[in-house]
Write a structure and sequence with these properties.
Blueprint: H1 3-19, E1 27-31, H2 35-41, H3 48-68, E2 72-79, H4 87-106, E3 110-114, H5 122-135, E4 142-149, H6 151-168, H7 173-179, H8 182-186, E5 199-202, E6 221-224, H9 234-245
Parallel strand pairs: 1-2, 1-5, 2-4, 3-4, 5-6
């Protein structure tokens, strides 16, 4: 172990000790950003190498979240906009996502796929649906896998589902308008039944949500990290938890 690694180990240990006395987040959302830029920064012509390194990093993150007592982790792996990328890049990325989801199942994770699965290729959509069905009764933290996900699309899907549900009960538009409230829509979101994210982490230095969990993030705390996702370290995660714990959460008041 080099001196640099030793210093980080000592720093990690001190951070973990200090966090042991503080309340942590129940739900952590992560925007896994910077895989392509990491590959280019490393001088790699094939950006799928960056996507694979990013996929491998997910399993480290889940271990850290488990140690911190996090109950729900939402991973934004592919947006609806990303589906417009050239097939030369998109196809290998979809294979990586499929393999990652299968590995989550093998490791006994409770996988909850979320996103517009109807926009995905059949093989990818099937892998996600199979993972969700196979692990729905698994104990332990929930891992929301957001693929083909967009926040505006989620809200539109929730409203559409709500209208269809009420129509099946014979409820008129006028009657629905009288009773409609926030909870009615929340019950049809991809994350229904889950706590809203307490902490959202975005890597790569970008400081925007880009449509991530727009409804659910009304009172979330945000942490922006300069590191590209493949370079995200445990010490970066612990810093995010420390930043979260230091904030005075007023929930809009």
């Amino acid at each position: 172990m080099g001196l640099r690694d030793l210093v980080y180990r000592v720093y990690e240990s001190r951070l973990e000790t200090s966090l042991g006395r503080l309340d942590g987040p129940r739900h952590v959302g992560v925007i896994l950003d910077g895989n392509r830029r990491w590959a280019k920064a490393m001088g790699l012509d094939d950006v799928s190498t960056g996507h694979q390194r990013g996929a491998d990093k997910i399993f480290e993150l889940l271990q850290w979240c488990g140690e911190a007592g996090v109950e729900v982790v939402t991973l934004w792996m592919l947006s609806t906009e990303n589906l417009d990328r050239p097939s030369k890049e998109l196809d290998p990325l979809l294979r990586i996502i499929e393999n990652t989801v299968r590995r989550l199942v093998r490791e006994g994770r409770h996988v909850n796929p979320m996103g517009a699965l109807d926009l995905l290729p059949d093989v990818t959509a099937r892998a996600l649906k199979d993972a969700g069905e196979a692990t729905s009764g698994f104990p332990g933290p929930i891992v929301n896998v957001a693929v083909g996900y967009g926040g505006r699309r989620e809200i539109a899907d929730a409203v559409r589902s709500l209208l269809q549900e009420q129509a099946s009960k014979g409820t008129s538009i006028e009657e629905l308008a009288e009773i409609l409230d926030i909870e009615h829509i929340a019950e049809h979101l991809y994350t229904r039944g889950q706590p809203d994210p307490d902490l959202v982490i975005r890597t790569s230095g970008e400081q925007r949500l880009s449509g991530f969990l727009l409804w659910q993030c009304a009172h979330s705390e945000f942490y922006f990290c300069e590191a590209y996702w493949p370079d995200f370290r445990k010490v970066d995660f612990l810093r995010a938890l420390r930043s979260y714990a230091a904030r005075n959460r007023r929930f809009g008041s």
